[in-house]
Amino acid sequence: MVSLDLSVVNVGLPQIAAGLGFSAMGLTWVIHAYALTFGGLLLLGGKAADRYGRRRVLLLGLGLFGLASLVGGFAQEPGHLVAARAAQGVGAAALAPAALALLTATFPSGKPRIRAFGVWSAMNAAGGAFGVLIGGVLTEYASWRWVMFVNVPMAAVALALAWRAVAATPPNTRSGRPDVLGAVLATAGMTLLVFGVVRTDQYAWTSPVTLTTLAVAVALLVAFVLVERTTSREPLVRLGLFANRSVAGANSYNLLVGAAMASAFYFVSLYLQRVLGQGPAMTGIMYLPLALGVVVGSFLAIKLGYRLAPRTLLIGGGLVTAAGFAWFGLISSDGTFAVDVLGPSIVTAVGFGLCLGPVVSTATAGVEPHEVGTASGLLNSARQIGAALGLAALGTASHDRTGPVVTPETLNDGYALGLTLGAGLLVAAVLIALTVLPRTGPPAPAGRQTEEERDLLPARE
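RE: above sequence
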């Protein structure tokens, strides 16, 4: 449901802009509002899941997500929709780490863990696949408002299933209240950071407005780190967690991959509609190879995961995805779906699918039970914040390349630049996997712990 919500909105962006009167750069806040609140509050959501019970937080998040979707469908102004998307992000920030923590606790090691995270990744991809198709059909034959309404019955069904199927478990954390101030500082800092980058289309990077905005953002993020080091409450994230190379490397990798992939979905959707002239429904159909390829890559990662270390899959998957982005960078204004989109979609999707399961498994390797929710929230936070920053930075670069005269040719040049820069982000992610992630062998059977896994256990304070 969470991944569907990202893709279903992407396909309807042009119609949302026309229906509510969004500006070209203001339209990106339909994505940013969700990604920022989702990413900024995920750490708090993970900590709340550890403290108050994962089932309880999961149910609360599902309820809020469904209600926000209903309100967003009735939006009458740009601000209404942006606010509803932000509320969706709050709900997602509660339910996503709770769900992933439940999965991690249920499958702690061995081949069952590989299968579990492979299926989890495939379900994420399936949500994206159905999202682009459903979003296109609903936008063209009903209304863009249904890209919001569609979440309501899904949330209701998921809520009923979770109520019946997920067993209540006692909280698995030490005493102490979550650090709400830290969550506020992190979210405010990241919001200002993205806001400053997005507005560089109006104010140059060296202008007082941009420099002041970015300086305040950095100050808030520094304050967040200081609060985490000195708070008398339970820290939002124990900074010592980053001493675990798997946690630090996987989150850095995930941030860069999230930045690239969010931009890809955005640029490809606009390229199909504004350059190739496809309607929303046909765009949704043309998106299916990209979305379904991730499913294929995820299941391929399960098979390969029995013989290869997660680090190896992250390196290989990142390189394949980067190759797909470089191919996307060759799009032309007089191109076709078969020549310019289909091939790079398949390559990009399979490579991305290879990365999904291994990065989750790596990010929670060696993490003690009372911090699993926090580690899960941290990983999701890295991807969502990466998505927001990546879309802001690459969207701004694309907008600058397009220039003041908007034609299919200038739009194509902007989208091509954004996709090429995405390939560079993926290469950087591969370098992180090579230099930061520890070398490990193939996974041990369930119930056995390898020497490498023991070495990954964080030092107790």
